[in-house]
């Protein structure tokens, strides 16, 4: 497999996992870990738009399939996640497993 393709797949999986947590599709365990999302979880999330602005902040936008509410989630280059799902505000920190 091509290294760039693998990196792209890891990034896509990470963004889907961030969305899964923000949308309440998967829980965060008491130790701060999150299980890998399944194909069923991916279907619950559905498609979303992803863009990166000139500060390196990633923007994820779409509609929550379960509630129909619009979401806009941002992830800054330091792993800070902020955004809204309808009227609900979400904030958390993402970091790699050591």
Word description of this protein:
The radius of gyration is 13 Å and the shape is globular. The longest helix has 20 residues, at 3-22. A hairpin with a 5-residue loop joins strand 1 and strand 2 (58-63). It contains 2 helices and 5 strands, in the order ααβββββ. The protein has one domain (3-93). It is 28% helix and 29% strand. It has a 5-stranded antiparallel β-sheet with strand order 1-2-3-4-5, covered by helices on one side. The protein has helices at 3-22, 39-45, and strands at residues 49-52, 58-63, 70-75, 80-85, 88-93. It is α+β, with helices and mostly antiparallel strands and 98 residues long. Mean pLDDT is 85; it is low at 1-10.
Distance between the termini: 25 Å
Give the strand order of the largest sheet, numbering strands 1, 2, ... along the chain: 1-2-3-4-5
Stretches with pLDDT under 50, minimum 5 residues: 1-10
Write down how many β-strands occur, each being a DSSP E stretch of 2 or more residues: 5
Query: Helical element count?
Result: 2
Overall domain count? 1
Order of helices and strands: HHEEEEE
What's the overall geometry? globular
The radius of gyration computed from the alpha-carbon positions, rounded to a whole number of angstroms, is 13 Å
Helicity range:
25-40%
Please identify the structural class as seen in this structure.
alpha+beta
Report the β-strand fraction as a percent range.
25-35%
Largest sheet, strands/sense/barrel: 5 strands, antiparallel
Mean pLDDT: 85
């Amino acid at each position: 497999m091509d290294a760039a393709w693998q990196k792209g797949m890891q990034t896509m999986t990470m963004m889907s996992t961030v969305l899964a947590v923000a949308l309440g599709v998967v829980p965060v365990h008491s130790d701060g870990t999150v299980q890998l999302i399944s194909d069923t979880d991916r279907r619950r999330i559905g498609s979303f738009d992803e863009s990166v602005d000139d500060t390196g902040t990633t923007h994820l936008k779409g509609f929550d399939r379960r509630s129909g509410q619009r979401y806009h989630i941002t992830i800054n280059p330091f792993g800070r996640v902020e955004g809204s799902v309808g009227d609900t505000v979400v904030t958390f920190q993402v970091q790699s497993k050591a």
